[in-house]
Amino acid sequence: MRAEHMKMITLEKVSFLFKNSNLEIIDSISFQTNKGEFISVVGPSGCGKSTLLRIIAGLITPTSGRVLFGNKEITEPNRKIAFVFQDFALLPWLTNQDNVKIGLSRSEMSDEAKDKKASELLDRFGLSGFEEYYPNALSGGMKQRVGIARSIASDPQVLLMDEPFSSLDELTANSLRSDIIYMLENKNISVNAVIMVTHNVEEAVELSDKIVVLSDKPSRVKEIIKVNGTRPRDKRSKQFADYVDRIYSVLAQD
Ligand SMILES: Nc1ncnc2c1ncn2[C@@H]1O[C@H](COP(=O)(O)OP(=O)(O)O)[C@@H](O)[C@H]1O
Ligand SMILES: [Mg+2]
């Protein structure tokens, strides 16, 4: 079997219902992420995208169906599956260095080794010299770089990202998108699959190998669109515009 076809994350008929409200949010969602793939999930606001990502992360349990990591069912958070948050989720009372070290809290490394790794990660994201600053001294883009450095500190294989660039200006978002693609394509970096939730259709077409289009809640898979072509993609090409149009039209269908 070719490495590219090794399955990373598989959703099998995942459904979810909030018990308190008896509200069905997710209705039998299935899709698969293979090694090397970038998958985006798009759908209307409130359709259950963040809930779905939390299920994949093992933070909440589906009401029915299951999620597999390789061949193993996910029943709790796993160090090899990391989360990047829209609002960065940094702890303001810790320095940037210590925020990155949180990503290593379950590691058996010595504190010295953790410090070394955290510094290396900050350096890789252009934040050398900011180790002892607090997050509030940083711009949004720099904060998200700290957030990403923390997420990849434990050498995860899968990166789950919930609207990671939506609170950033476009130039900063673009540079971070390139960083994520670099991580995915660089064989020396552990990350080898990304699942991103976004409401930005252009961003999904720019980055993804597959786009999972969800319906309004209870969310179902409307269509899974495969995007051809290597990255970086030419956003001004006809092909790019055609993908964007197609996704908008699937979103608009009843
Ligand atoms: N604890 C909860 N109890 C009941 N309903 C909830 C709870 N949390 C979220 N919801 C509802 O679930 C739906 C999906 O939420 P979410 O996964 O955040 O959607 P999305 O990320 O697509 O905007 C929303 O309509 C929200 O109101
Ligand atoms: Mg959300």
Within the CATH hierarchy, at the fold level, what is the topology of the largest domain? Rossmann fold
Tally of individual domains? 2
Enumerate the distinct ligands: adenosine-5'-diphosphate, magnesium ion
Structural class: alpha/beta
SSE pattern: EEEHEEEHHHEHEHEEH
Strand-residue proportion = 15-25%
The oligomeric state of the chains shown is: single chain
Mean pLDDT: 94
Distance between the termini: 38 Å
Give the overall silhouette: globular
Low-confidence stretches: none
The CATH architecture term of the largest domain is 3-Layer(aba) Sandwich
Biggest beta-sheet profile: 6 strands, mixed
Gyration radius, in Å: 18 Å
Output the CATH homologous superfamily of the largest domain: P-loop containing nucleotide triphosphate hydrolases
SS field, number of helical segments = 7
- Tell how many strands the DSSP assignment holds: 10
Range of helix content: 25-40%
Q: Which class of the largest domain in CATH terms?
A: Alpha Beta
